[in-house]
Amino acid sequence: MTSQKNSLSNTSDSFSNSHDPVMVNEIVECFATVPAGVVVDATFGLGGHSKAILNAHPSLQILGLDQDAFAVASAQRMIVEDQSVRGRLTIRRARFDSLTQVLEELSINQISGALFDLGVSSPQLDIAERGFSYRNDGPLDMRMDQRGEVSAADVVNTYEESELAHLIASNADERFARRIARAIVAARPINTTIHLSEIIVSAIPAPARRTGGHPAKRTFQAIRIEVNKELEILARALQAAIDATKVGGRVAVLTYHSGENRIVKQVFRSAENDTDEPKIGSPYVHESQLGQRRARRVRISQNPSAKEQSENRRAKSARLRVIEKTFAGAVG
Q1: What is the pLDDT of residues 274-332, one digit of tens each?
Q2: For the whole model, what pTM was predicted?
Q3: Whose CA is closest to 117, among 330, 325, 317?
Q4: Per-residue confidence band for 47, with pLDDT thresholds at 50, 70 and 90
Q5: Contact at 8 Å (CB) between 64 and 38?
Q6: Are 180 and 200 in contact (CB under 8 A)?
Q7: DSSP string of 258-272?
Q8: CATH classification of 2-123+230-325, choosing from 3.30.1310.20, 3.90.180.10, 3.40.50.150, 1.20.1260.10?
Q9: Residues spanned by CATH 1.10.150.170 within the chain?
C-alpha cells in the first residue's frame, strides 16, 4: 500500500512539473471575446492553457475534465495552492465525451466555450511506467484512464495480424503497417515498450528509418488511440461542446495527426453549414434571421510559429482550429 501511495505521489508530482502548453498565446486570444461564464477544458492535463485563460480573462471560469487520475490530483493541488485559480476552477475526472453529463450534474445550461488539446500529455510520455513512450522502457499500458480494461499489451498480444495492420494504417497513416503487424505477431509475447519499439524498427526498411522522426512513433500513436478509443469519441464530444456553447462562444481544438484533424474538419464544416430554418410566422424569430448559420469557423487551420516549433517538440505537428457559435440551439 505504501509503495502504491508513493507511486501516486511521484506521478502526481510529475504532472505538477512545468511543461509549455502548445500555442498558449493563440488559445488565450481565442477566448478573449467570448461571453462571461464557464469554459470547458475538456483535456485538462497540466492545466497550462486553463491557468493562462483564467489569468488573462477575469470574466471566465474553467471546468476541467480529465480521465487521468494523476492529472485530476494535480488540478486539485493547484486549486488548493494557487490563489489565482481558487474559486474559478472546477475539476472532474471524466472522459471528454461525458461533457453533457458533467454539465447536467453541475446544472450548467450553457458554456462560454470549450478547449480540446488532443493526444497524449507530456507527463504521460515522460513517466515510463505509463507505457506511452517508445524511448523509455516500461510496461505496455498506454491507458489514459487506468480504470480501463484494455491496455496496449492486450492490443499487441491478442489482436489478429489483420486487425493490427488496419489500426496501424488507419490511426497513424503508417505505410509499413502490414510489415509491422506481421513482425509483432511473430515476436509475441511482447511485454515492454522498448521490446515493441525494437520490433517496429526492425520491420521498417533501413532507408525509411532515416526520415520522419523515430520509426516507432506512428505505431505507438496508433496503439494508444486504439486503447483509449480516441477517434471513436471525438466527433460526438465536439458536437456536444458546440451544442452547449452560447452565441458568441467558441470551441478551439488542437490536433496532432491527420485522423484527429479530419474529424475536427468534418464536425466544424457540418456546424458551419447548418442553418436555422424556422417558419416565417414564428413569433420568436425575425424574418432577417432565417437561414442564419449556427456557427462560423474563426480559424480554419493554424500552425504554431516557427519559434515555438523549434522550442517545443510537441508543437511541431499541432494544428489549431476554432469555431464560433453564431445562432442559439443545438447544431446538427
Answers
A1: 865 543 444 444 444 445 678 999 988 899 999 999 998 889 899 999 999 998 756 55
A2: 0.88
A3: 317
A4: very high
A5: no
A6: yes
A7: HHHHHHHHHHHHHHH
A8: 3.40.50.150
A9: 129-228
